[in-house]
Automatic annotation (TrEMBL), chain A:
Keyword Hydrolase attached: no
PANTHER family: XANTHINE DEHYDROGENASE SUBUNIT C-RELATED
Protein's organism: Rhizobium lemnae
SUPFAM superfamilies reported in the protein's UniProt record: CO dehydrogenase flavoprotein C-terminal domain-like (SSF55447), FAD-binding/transporter-associated domain-like (SSF56176)
Name of the protein in its database record: FAD binding domain-containing protein
Chain ranges of the FAD-binding PCMH-type domain: 1-170
UniProt keyword list: FAD, Flavoprotein, Oxidoreductase
Gene3D superfamilies referenced in this protein's UniProt entry, alphabetically: 3.30.465.10, CO dehydrogenase flavoprotein, C-terminal domain (3.30.390.50), Uridine Diphospho-n-acetylenolpyruvylglucosamine Reductase, domain 2 (3.30.43.10)
From TrEMBL, chain B:
Pfam families: Ald_Xan_dh_C (PF01315), MoCoBD_1 (PF02738), MoCoBD_2 (PF20256)
InterPro entries: Ald_Oxase/Xan_DH_a/b, Ald_Oxase/Xan_DH_a/b_sf, Ald_Oxase/xanthine_DH-like, AldOxase/xan_DH_MoCoBD1, AldOxase/xan_DH_MoCoBD2, AldOxase/xan_DH_Mopterin-bd_sf
Domain Aldehyde oxidase/xanthine dehydrogenase a/b hammerhead intervals: 20-140
Record keyword Oxidoreductase present: yes
Keyword field: Molybdenum, Oxidoreductase
Name of the protein in question: Xanthine dehydrogenase family protein molybdopterin-binding subunit
Length: 265, 787
């Protein structure tokens, strides 16, 4: 790791100001990717602005069906929130499967969504739940937010403050972990709400998290694991690496979609 | 046995410091004025070095010096060597290419060390290493052993034309060919044994301290055998004469073979300490460990097993290519030869065996012994072949094995080994009972109802441990003897120190060795301390590997204890005016048999040191040394059964149950033995299901250079193991011990792959990842239009 300056922000305004005061500053929101990358000397921010102590960015609120998860909320907090579990247990289940206990107590939803790792779990939930990414300057719909591997609609210095969504009628997440890293080799989040069905896939796509419109249509017509079987998933859009072939990932999209639907009930 | 003696489940004396973070490892060592090293390494798999410029690096903050291979060579530091001479079948010696501790003109794998930077901090050393400019002329690289032997493959060492190091054979080729020609059935199979990275929890480290006033060196290092390190660094690498070099291997966090060898880093740190005038410490990071720790396995083999009409094996022919990487590591030549092909008889009476082994250079990190070292490769080959043969012959795998078991001992195999004792039927029967083998069809049917493919597989392994009779290994090319030493020092108040040449890096010697002493003398375990790992404290010893510490190391302690007891009895007899032959040692007392005369142990010890009243002519003191050279290898054996369930949708294998029935001979501490088996099984299961080192076959870059891509087994990958023992005491050493450290890693891979292939009905190579199992299922079944 190269030398870096650590700052602990206590408000959103202070965080944004600290970040903009240095060209090479980065937000730190758990650092479960960033710190490891810095230790490998693959990233060298001059300054780190820690967000985990900004009170307004922490905590979960559930009002009726409206959910707001502060960006600095840890995976462990999401996994164990009874209020959230009452309206959307699938996201609690997802958060409980991220990394290991150390990671879950450090990593945050905002950090994960901002990084948009193509194999991270949260992007699939945010996209399938049609969530809104709330930043210090605007609100971004999930469909507009995710723009490819590690690529998002965030502008320079823009800070995610919360993720909000309307709790779905039903939702489920099924993940097939990479045997080595335990990241999603393929993870599928399905959500059914009054406005329709959304199916989002992480880990498998050659361009990051994506929706599978054919699966959405099939599940809208018939919300059942069986209806997944009739859909063909195009392997040409899948990622290829030493851990999985496109064919295998295309197969896993269907298998995990079925299991997600079964889990959703 | 008592509460603390042989056979007792004593909690490890080491546990407190290890479990509370109080262990003292090489990286914990701090000496005055100590500085830090970082190595400049090759980013290329194969290249000529056309220039090295260190001037910018030397000017960096905190940098003390930057040293390269030319300076090392100029100071007369020697090349690394392989210490076991193998001759090809044409009589020519193995063709060893030069391995310079710091590469001078050519780099041969990604990670090959080129220069050392010494600085005030690790970060500054690393900063400076990044500005060392090395000019390379890239050369084509070759990664796999098969490709390295092809005509036109890149030539790696001028000394080894065609990259062939040796072409060796064992056994009777003509008799084997005749058996195959006359066979009623021949099973042919190709076997791949996947390449593994050892991954000890503690990465390698070295601290070199040069004392100018005494012209003396101290090396703290992560070694399984500090005396061997001192010997080799003195005799071959010309670092310093033995009397001027102290090697200390303090607490070591796992080795699995990878810390047997002397690597470039400890040599260079010692030399750099003299060169710079400061103590120099280097600690590997995890990626450096993946890049530079010696790997294991990496065999490609073709097998023919011949049967007569009664399903008796009449011949076995094996052709193996073993990848030794870019350089010959210390014992690399022995692993695919005398530690491998000599075990190809397995548990079976096979009249004719022939094995041919070619070893090759490739542009990968050196390959050497890794937990089991040759024996896992032999067992995997043999037990997969037996399974395939049973399927081809339409007989049960258990019956085919039983029919061919060796049943009388000693048994001379056609491949050198002379098995001294065993009861293979007992372990097979115990394992099948524990696994409820006969109930499997019902369990399979039940699983099928849930859409799962269930399979069961067995493996009957044998290994040769307790290495090794020095004369025998010497005749086979070993450059060292493989005896062990012990010194038992009784203090004046009766407490005891045992100095052993064995080295504990997770095996629990501080407990088991003390149990032996407590058992023999009836003294409390707490009064016995085990001292190891320091060449200034401990007499010459050979270290720990090949499951030898119990069979060889403890046998040396027995010999020393015999001498201590003899002297103590003489003193006691003198003090109690009895005949020496009437003295017995019981519960910490020396007694005159048949009388009520006793002397506590400590009084006898005290008498030895006060020397006020010793038998005439006796030297004062109570301290004895012994060297023990084994008369034979030991032969642990057993039967492992794996039962798996495969999810055909994802290809994921779940281990439903794993049974291990082992014959380890006599056992000192069953709890520690179980721990050794658990650890070995975890590594074997890792090899079978998860682990594989992969290089890019064009660029030679290591693709599995972190845990993001190299899959180590985790707790939830493993079932709860069912263990049992069917022990036949080993007749070849005084304690009847065979050894247990490697069995789990040796016996488990074939059991798992036999179970998986039983489940899916097609062959598969290790590791049987979900991807590969799913692909195998796709190729086996016509793809359904709608899933």
């Amino acid at each position: 790791m190269y030398d870096t300056n650590y700052h602990r922000a206590s408000s959103v305004e202070e965080a944004v100001k600290l970040r903009s005061s240095q060209d090479e500053a980065r937000y730190l929101s758990g650092g479960m990717t960033l710190i490891a990358t810095m230790k490998q000397r693959l990233a060298a921010p001059s300054d780190l602005v820690d967000l985990r102590h900004v009170a307004s960015m922490k905590g979960i609120s559930v009002e009726g069906r409206k959910v707001r998860i502060g960006a600095a909320t840890t995976h462990a907090e999401v996994a164990s929130s009874s209020a959230l579990r009452a309206v959307c247990p699938a996201i609690c289940h997802l958060a409980g499967m991220i990394g290991d206990p150390h990671v879950r107590h450090m990593g945050t939803i905002g950090g994960s969504v901002a990084n948009n790792d193509p194999a991270a779990d949260y992007p699939s939930a945010v996209l399938a739940l049609n969530a809104t990414v709330v930043t210090d300057r605007r609100e971004i719909s999930a469909d507009d937010y995710f723009q490819g591997m590690f690529d998002t609609a965030l502008e320079e210095g823009e800070l995610i403050t919360a993720i909000t969504f309307e709790a779905p009628e039903k939702a489920g997440y099924a993940k097939f972990p990479n045997p080595a890293s335990r990241y999603a080799l393929t993870g599928v989040f399905v959500a059914k709400s009054g406005s329709g069905v959304r199916v989002a896939v992480t880990g498998a796509g050659s361009n990051g998290v994506f929706r599978v419109k054919d699966l959405e249509a099939a599940l809208l017509a018939n919300w059942s694991a069986e209806s997944v079987s009739s859909v063909t998933v195009d392997a040409s859009q899948m990622m290829e690496d030493m851990h999985a072939t496109p064919d295998y990932r295309a197969n896993l999209v269907k298998v995990m979609a079925k299991r997600a639907v079964q889990a959703a009930g | 046995m008592g509460m603390e003696g042989i056979g007792a489940r004593v909690a490890r004396k080491e546990d407190k410091r290890f479990l509370t973070g109080k262990g003292r490892y090489t990286d914990d060592m701090v000496v005055p004025g100590m500085k830090y090293a970082y190595f400049v390494r090759s980013p290329h798999a194969h290249a000529k070095i056309t220039g090295i410029n260190v001037s910018a690096a030397k000017a960096m903050p905190g940098v003390i010096d930057v040293l390269d291979g030319k300076q090392l060579q100029a100071d007369g530091i020697g090349n690394l060597i392989c210490g076991w001479m193998i001759h090809s079948k044409d009589g020519s010696p193995m063709k060893m290419g030069a391995w310079r501790p710091l590469a001078v003109d050519t780099v041969r794998y990604v990670g090959d060390a080129i220069a050392i930077v010494v600085a005030d901090s690790v970060a500054e050393a690393r900063d400076a290493a990044e500005v060392v400019t090395v000019d390379y002329e890239e050369l084509p690289a070759v990664i796999t052993s098969v490709a390295a032997l092809e005509a036109g493959a890149p030539q790696i060492h001028p000394e080894a034309p065609g990259n062939l190091i040796f072409d060796w054979q064992i056994g009777d080729g003509a008799a084997t060919d005749k058996a195959i020609a006359e066979a009623a059935h021949v099973t042919e199979i190709e076997i791949l044994n996947n390449r593994l990275s050892p991954n000890p929890m503690e990465p390698r480290a070295a601290l070199g301290v040069y004392d100018e006033a005494e012209d003396h060196y101290t090396c703290y290092t992560t070694s399984q055998n500090p005396h061997v390190a001192r010997l080799v660094m003195s005799a071959f690498y010309n670092v310093a004469p033995e009397n001027k070099l102290r090697v200390i291997a303090p607490d070591v966090g796992g080795g699995f073979g990878s810390k047997i060898y002397i690597y470039p880093e400890e040599i260079v740190c010692l030399w750099a300490s003299k060169k710079t005038g400061v103590p120099v410490k280097w600690t590997s990071d995890r990626t450096e460990a993946f890049l530079t720790d010696a790997h294991g396995r990496d065999h490609v083999s073709k097998v023919k097993m011949a049967f007569d009409k009664n399903h008796r094996i009449i011949g076995l022919k094996v052709d193996t290519i073993a990848n030794l990487g870019a350089y010959m590591s210390l014992f690399s030549s022995a692993v695919p030869t005398y530690l491998y092909a000599t075990l190809l008889s397995g548990q079976y009476a096979i009249p004719a065996i022939h094995a041919n082994v070619r070893t090759v250079y490739t542009n990968t990190v050196p390959v050497d012994a890794y937990r089991g070292a040759g024996r896992p490769e032999a067992t995997y080959l043999l037990e997969r072949t037996m399974e395939v043969a049973a399927r081809e012959l339409g007989v049960s795998p258990a019956e085919l094995r039983r029919k061919n078991f060796i049943r009388s001992f000693p048994y001379q195999t056609p491949v050198i080994m002379n098995y001294d004792a065993g009861d293979y039927d007992a372990s097979l029967t115990a394992a099948m009972d524990a696994a409820d083998w006969n109930g499997f069809p019902a369990r399979r049917a039940e699983a099928e109802g849930r859409g799962k493919k269930r399979g069961i597989g067995m493996s009957c392994y044998i290994e040769a441990c307790g290495i090794a009779p020095s004369q025998a290994v010497g005749s086979l090319g070993a450059g060292v003897g493989l005896w062990e030493s012990a010194e038992v020092r009784v203090n004046a108040v009766g407490t005891i120190e045992v100095l052993t040449g064995s080295h504990s890096h997770g095996q629990g010697h501080e407990t088991t060795f003390a149990q032996l002493v407590a058992d023999r003398l009836g003294v409390p375990l707490a009064s016995v301390n085990i001292v190891h790992g320091d060449t200034d404290k401990v007499q010459m010893g050979m270290g720990t590997y090949g499951s030898r510490s119990g069979a060889v190391g403890m046998s040396a302690i027995v010999k020393a204890l015999d001498k201590v007891e003899m002297k103590a009895k003489k003193i006691a007899a003198h003090l109690m005016e009895a005949d020496e032959s009437d003295i017995v040692i019981e519960n910490g007392e020396l007694k005159v048999a048949g009388t009520d005369k006793t002397l506590p142990w400590f009084q006898v010890a005290l008498a030895a040191y006060t020397a006020h009243n010793l038998p005439s002519g006796m030297e004062p003191g109570l301290k004895e040394t012994a060297f023990y050279d084994p008369s034979n290898f030991t032969f642990p054996a057993g039967c492992y059964i794996a039962e798996v369930e495969i999810d055909p949708d994802t290809g994921k294998t779940e281990i439903i149950q794993f049974v291990a029935a082992d014959d380890f001979g006599n056992i000192i501490n069953p709890m520690i033995v179980e721990g050794q088996v658990h650890g070995g099984l975890a590594q074997g299961i890792g090899q079978a299901l998860l682990e594989e080192v992969r290089y890019d076959e064009v660029s030679g870059q290591l693709l599995t250079a972190s845990y993001m891509d190299y899959a180590m087994p985790r707790a939830d990958d493993l079932p709860s193991f069912k263990l049992s023992h069917q022990n036949t005491p080993c007749p070849s050493n005084p304690l009847g011990i065979k050894g247990c450290g490697e069995a789990g890693a040796i016996g488990s891979p074939p059991a798992l792959i036999n179970a998986i292939t039983d489940a899916i009905g097609v062959e598969i190579t290790m590791p049987a990842t979900p991807l590969k199992v799913w692909q195998a299922l796709q190729s086996a079944e016509p793809r359904m239009a709608a899933e």
